[in-house]
Amino acid sequence: MRAKRCVRVITRLVLLLTLTTAVLLAPPPPLFAAVRPAPPPPLPAAVRPAWAATAPAADVTVPAVGRSWPVGLRPPVLRGWEPPATVYGPGHRGVDLAAAPGTPVRAVAAGRVAFAGRVAGKGVVSVELSGTGDPPLRTTYEPVTASVEEGEEVEPGEVIGTVAAGGSHCTSPCVHWGLRRGGTYVNPLDLLPPWLLHRGPSRLLPVFA
User: Fold this and answer.
1) Using an 8 Å Cβ cutoff, are 125 and 146 in contact?
2) What's the CATH code of the domain at 189?
3) How far is 115 from 109, CA to CA, in rounded Å?
């Protein structure tokens, strides 16, 4: 009996010694917990650098109020709409339509001539379109020799000038057609309804008795 008690006492002592050693050898807890700094809040739009500003969301509610192409019946599009990724980034803020010098330039929709003159040596005509919201949509045509004056009211298809011989940025003669609402450029082709945008040449059908 005494032997069994001695074994129990020795076992308890060994277990107690093991626990005490583990506690003594354990690393002490840190006095202060590590605190990760919070990320800085985003800068307000007023102080963001220009290169960080993204292009404003385009107003996709462009009404199809166009009733005429600016030039010709269905002119070839030499270069299409290429919206820039940023406000000042590269892109093409309009479409280039093939047109020889002297070709009549027509208002695509009813409106008022907001500008008719020269900008950076190029003739420019700009028309604010009626009934297109506030601020109104504004179409721009260049290079154009204007036949209208600022403040004049124009109707769809009305001639507002002719394609100028010089001032085009195209490799071949063209007129640049742009559209914007305030400072936001949008695709001018959105002004044209499908029947006008995709209309092909007229064909005569045979008549059967």
Assistant:
1) yes
2) 2.70.70.10
3) 16
Structure tokens at 95: 């479409």
Residue 74 covered by a domain: yes
Write phi, then psi, for 196 (nearest 5 degrees): -90, -35
Q: How far apart are CA 56 and CA 54, in angstroms?
A: 6
Query: Cα separation of 193 and 23, whole Å?
Result: 83
Asked, for residue 11, whether it belongs to a domain, the answer is no
**Total of domains in the chain:** 1
Q: pTM value? A: 0.64
Q: Is residue 73 part of a domain?
A: yes
- Domain of residue 180 covers 67-197
Average pLDDT of adjacent 10-residue blocks, the chain of 209 residues: 65 65 57 49 41 40 92 89 65 85 96 95 95 94 96 97 84 90 90 78 46
Give Cα separations from 124 to 4, 104, 163, 172, 208 (angstroms): 112, 14, 10, 18, 51
Look at residue 167 and tell me if it is in a domain: yes
